[in-house]
């Protein structure tokens, strides 16, 4: 049985709203879920992204995705914060399709919400492989392939 998803999708930064319809965001997240989840996805500008990263991770810059995970059982509960200008810049720098890069960041954040991590090399390899599998199942190219 596929996991269920309760999704709140918020656009504080509306620049990519047309590329991120709710049904696609939900599909990408569900592909990464191993259990039921209640997720809030918030698309933010650089200012909000930097403030959150600074206040919660003590890193004074905006990053692509922040995952605030609250519980993993019996239901995964988390907030995924994606910084629109950072995701856009990375997609351009890496010659990736913007929508594909958003899908990857959502999958990445959803895995973090379920306890996946990439602090150690073996963890990073396992997480990257799982991301590749999910992205391929969704019809996207390998997010770690260099273009």
Short description, anyone?
The chain is an alpha/beta fold. The protein has 5 helices and 4 strands; from the N terminus they run βαβαββααα.
Commentary on this structure:
The protein has a 4-stranded mixed sheet with strand order 1-2-4-3. The mean pLDDT is 95. The chain is built from 5 helices and 4 strands, in the order E-H-E-H-E-E-H-H-H. Helix content is 45%, strand content 20%. The protein has 147 residues and is an alpha/beta fold.
The largest β sheet comes out as:
4 strands, mixed
Shape: globular
Tell me the strand order in the biggest sheet.
1-2-4-3
Distance between the termini: 37 Å
Radius of gyration using CA atoms only? 14 Å
Give a quick set of tags describing it.
147 residues, alpha/beta, four-stranded mixed beta sheet, 5 helices
Task: Give me the secondary-structure topology.
Elements: E1 5-11, H1 22-32, E2 37-44, H2 46-57, E3 65-71, E4 76-83, H3 84-93, H4 98-113, H5 121-137
